[in-house]
Structure formats: structure tokens, C-alpha cells
Write a structure and sequence with these properties.
- By secondary structure, the chain is α/β, with parallel strands linked by helices.
- The protein has a single domain, classed as 3-Layer(aba) Sandwich (Rossmann fold), CATH 3.40.50.
- The chain is about 20% helix and about 20% strand.
- It contains 4 helices and 6 strands.
- The protein is globular.
- It comes from Apolygus lucorum (Small green plant bug).
Length: about 170
Amino acid sequence: MLSNSEIEKIPVSNFVRESGLVGVWCTNAPSHVEAVTEQFFQSWGLKYVATWYWVKVTQGGEAIRPYGSQTEKRPYERIIFGCSENRRFKNPPPDMCVVSVPSAIHSQKPPLVEVLQEYLPEQPACLELFARYLLPGWTSLGNQVIDLQHLSLYESSACAPPPLSSATTSTAR
């Protein structure tokens, strides 16, 4: 966990190309939303473009919890987008929703690669800070990047090679 002042000091502008797009996953706390749109983007040399919402639903399509009051946890999170002033590509439109069943793994966000494709160049150079898993073609930085690559999170399939211990045992016969 980093404070807003620590996040603001991250030199994001060093990683953003002239036509770059930055997406920030944000809690629903008004102080965090304001920090991203008013402080972070200004410090990073970006302008606010849009806010999208990740709506978390059950497998039956219902919100995972009631929308409730301002003080209760909500069934959605925000993705706030900023871009460099000289951006040559179409910007994400405001108020879009990404709807998905959340992972059982705490704080795992859905990959946005496909839904952002029309707002990125053909061969984008993408970077995820505070990453929790690897994405093909992306640079992922964080202290938990490979946590979700652990074998215990995957199921064996008929096409998969046998585990090394089985292969070693069968070849020793």
C-alpha cells in the first residue's frame, strides 16, 4: 500500500510516450478519485480523459452486492484514464462499463487488453505497474507479478504433459 503522495511521486511521465494512455484502477473513495484526476495526472503531465466502471457480477449476472449507501462497499471499481496532450489516437469514451465475474483471488482485476485495443496503436508498448499477473506482450512490474502464475492455480488437462515426477518415474521403469 502506498499513500497518495507516494503514488504521485512515481515518475509515470518517464514511461508515457507522446501519444500515451494511462489507466488507473481506483477505489470509490472520493479522496482517491480526486487525487488521481486532480493531482496524479497533473504531476505526470497528463490530462483526464474518462472514467470507466468495472461492474462485478455473479455467474448469474447479478451485482455481487447491493449498490447501497455511500459508506458501504460497492459492486464496482473505477478505471480512470488520462493521456498525454499530443495523443494521436482515439481516447476511451466516458462512462463505459466492463462487466465480469470477479476472480476468487483477492484484488485480481480483469485484463483490459481487448477492450482497450481500439484506443491503442497496432503494436502498443504496454506497462502495468503493481501488476499481479503477467500479460502477453506487456511489461509487468510489481512485487507480486508471478504470484498468479503458480501451478496450484491451474487445472491439468488431457493435452498437458504429465508432471515431472510422473515422467521421471515412468522413464525409470
